[in-house]
Specification:
The chain is an alpha+beta fold. It is built from 14 helices and 15 strands. GO terms for molecular function: kinase activity.
């Protein structure tokens, strides 16, 4: 055994030779020094015959090696009571002892450091996967820059805006000169002066509220960019402003058709609204259209609009529900166009406010449009009331005018009667007739006074009601 002992005597790992009967043949120096110390009782758990002659345990790696046909076996032994952790490798040798028993080389080592590195690598990999999952799937724009404007990393949202393969490229090569100069100034302030900077940025029809903050990575200061997508918020803000302007129109505009035209014009200025139309049916049928596709699709037939009018409910769906010969569907060349139709209700009029838009509407945007349709319905009712009021004034004027004519005609007839009574009739009969004529004239004078008061009332109503 001399050659083996020379090889493993100063080996830094615990090493011993055991035969197939679990008899200890050799232990190296480090194992001999510790066998009565921290390893006391451990070897007996691994190979009992090596220490006290007891029978070996069922999970003995040497037995496992023999059972599997003399193959190398690895085994871990942990003693939590003494905070001991040993890894074991049992390797069969092509050597036998003097009793013709097969020898096995057994090596023990402390796997703490290797296991710790393995755990750290696993934790790092897990953290990297978490970071990458968040980084790549967040709806916000995220990027990391050096102080020189070089892109260290960029997520998919930033790639959609600036182009693919951004890592390693300079922001000056990605953005137009005027924009890149501003960004370089922002990045310099963040990295060199540790300032936090916020600004708005638009790209491909999306709006971002961008924040740049300093971060330290690998011992160097970088600029972290986070761009929160505020497109929907911007859209709601723009739509609310449009709603306010339209409400002012509703209060001030006195012509119904002109009001509806201005409403359509205001709404069609909204970025993703391709076509806006208002249709009224009933006694005062009317259609008003505005938007980029107004000229081509102004007289189109729309089933969605008909459903909103017929059932009095808001309807929103993609244009692919329309027939293949749908004018708007063919003009847009896309099934990503949506149709939203909201009912308009007044006493004698019904209709719909219909918007053809790219992308679906949020609940907030739909609620704003429903508020708008309610305002338009209120305005239509106001127009109806105004029409009724004007007709009532006309009727009153006609009645007053006719009453004045009838009063004059009656007075003329009474004058004739008075003349006849005075000339042709004498005595008591004449006096009675003239007395009744005077009574009738007094009644007619009261009617005339009422007509004058009616004229004053009519002027007051026209002025203040």
């Amino acid at each position: 055994m001399e050659p083996i002992s020379q090889v493993f005597e100063n080996f830094p790992l615990y090493t011993m030779l055991v035969d197939e009967d679990h008899s200890l043949v050799y232990m190296n120096r480090i194992l001999r020094n510790d066998i009565d110390g921290k390893l006391k009782g451990v070897i007996s758990r691994y190979c009992p015959d090596a220490s006290d002659g007891a029978s070996h345990p069922q999970d003995c790696p040497l037995c496992e090696s023999i059972r599997k046909g003399y193959v190398p076996v690895k085994f871990e032994l942990r003693d939590f009571s003494r905070n001991l952790w040993l890894a074991t490798a049992v390797c069969p040798l092509h050597t036998k002892n003097q009793n013709e028993k097969r020898l096995f080389l057994c090596i023990f080592w402390d796997p703490h450091e290797a296991k710790l590195n393995e755990l750290l690598k696993g934790e790092l990999k897990r953290n990297e996967e978490i970071y990458r999952a968040i980084f790549d799937n967040t709806p916000n724009m995220v990027g990391i820059f050096t102080g020189d404007g070089v892109i260290v990393d960029a997520n998919a949202v930033m790639a959609e805006c600036f182009g693919p393969d951004l890592a390693g490229r300079n922001i000056k090569d990605v953005l137009p000169k005027e924009v890149s100069e501003k960004w370089m100034n922002y990045i310099a302030n963040v990295v060199e002066r540790r300032r936090r900077i916020a600004f708005e940025f638009s790209c491909n029809g999306r709006h971002y509220l961008v924040s740049m903050v300093p971060v330290d990575l690998a011992g160097e200061r970088h600029c972290l960019l986070i761009g929160r997508d505020v497109t929907e918020m911007k859209h709601r803000e723009m739509l609310l402003r449009t709603l306010i302007r339209i409400e002012m129109l509703v209060d001030s505009e006195k012509d119904r058709k002109k009001l509806l035209e201005e409403v359509c014009s205001e709404l069609s200025s909204f970025p993703n609204y391709l076509l806006v139309r208002i249709d009224l049916v009933g006694k005062d049928r009317l259609s008003v259209v505005s938007g980029n596709l107004a000229d081509a699709a102004g007289d189109m037939h729309c089933r969605v609009m008909e459903r909103a009018i017929r059932h009095g409910v808001s309807v929103s769906m993609k244009v692919d529900v329309c027939d293949e010969n749908c004018t708007l569907r063919n003009l847009s060349g896309s099934d990503e166009i949506w149709i939203t139709s909201l009912p308009l209700r007044a006493d004698g009029v019904s209709g719909a406010l219909t918007v053809f838009h790219s992308g679906s509407l949020s609940q907030e945007e739909l609620a704003i449009l429903e508020t708008l349709s309610a305002d338009i319905s209120f305005a239509l009712r106001a127009f109806e009331l105004e029409e009724i009021r004007m007709k009532a004034y006309e009727k009153i004027e006609d009645i007053v005018y006719r009453s004045a004519i009838l009063t004059d005609e009656i007075k003329n007839a009474l004058t004739v009667i008075s003349g006849i009574a005075e000339l042709k009739i004498s005595g008591v009969e004449s006096a009675k007739i003239l007395e009744q004529v005077d009574r009738i004239k007094k009644i007619l004078d009261e009617i005339d006074n009422g007509w004058i008061e009616s004229e004053k009332l009519k002027k007051f109503l026209k002025k203040y009601v």
